[in-house]
Write a structure and sequence with these properties.
This protein has three helices and 14 strands. The chain has 205 residues and is α+β, with helices and mostly antiparallel strands. The N terminus is likely disordered.
Length: 205
């Protein structure tokens, strides 16, 4: 859990002590800390061994599966979008093994991540990965309530499936752009878990 979040909660608790009294402030502070630990916990996940598996980068719900243009890698792609609500774990994990070709950050506006426009207008961070000759792009889009994307990797880094590479705070969406011949393993509306759910399978073109 981020130390800045803990410090902010403690500061708010101390401030509320003057307004509400000691016990109400301590109760609210404890609840806020518990919720923060729940959202940003980094528990180990079982990594599927299936060859060609593309793992979910986030806990949440599949909201879109469609053929689109990947604007970050400039290619046709299959996009699978996972929406994370306020109570899903906010950490993001690598969907595939591979070497990061580029990381692109874009500041943006506060648009609901349930909307199609979020992929173009929200604060977002794109990680383009070369996975054994196939390109996979992971795009973190910040949510409506807070714009705060953290990405801990850079171009040239090597990722392994299930490795934590960043997080998005307070509701968000992750778009996974795959080669157009990838085979989806999930359907819109389906609940998915980071690392343990296989979103799709990469096959030879």
């Amino acid at each position: 859990m981020n130390a800045h979040v803990v410090a902010l909660i403690l500061l708010a608790t101390l401030t509320l002590t003057w307004v509400l009294g000691t016990w109400p402030a301590l109760l609210l502070g404890s609840l806020a800390l518990a919720l923060s630990f729940l959202l940003w916990r980094a528990s180990p996940r079982q990594v599927p061994a299936q060859s060609g598996a593309v793992l979910s980068p986030a806990d949440g719900r599949v909201v879109k599966i469609e053929k689109v243009r990947d604007p970050y890698a400039n290619r046709d792609a299959l996009r699978i979008s996972v929406f994370m609500n306020l109570f899903d774990t906010q950490g993001n994990r690598a969907s595939v093994d591979g070497v990061i070709q580029q990381v692109q950050y874009f500041p943006g506006h506060l648009v609901s991540t349930d909307l199609d426009t979020a992929s173009r207008h929200n604060e977002r961070n794109a990680v383009v990965i070369d996975s054994h000759g196939q390109i996979v792009t992971l795009v973190q889009s910040a949510g409506l309530f807070a714009r705060r994307i953290l990405c801990h990797v850079k171009a040239g880094d090597r990722l392994t499936r299930g490795q934590r590479y960043g997080l998005i705070r307070f509701g968000s969406r992750v778009d996974v752009y795959l080669p157009p011949h990838a085979v989806p393993n999930v359907a819109p509306g389906e609940k998915v878990s980071a690392t343990t759910t296989i979103l799709a399978t990469l096959v030879a073109a």
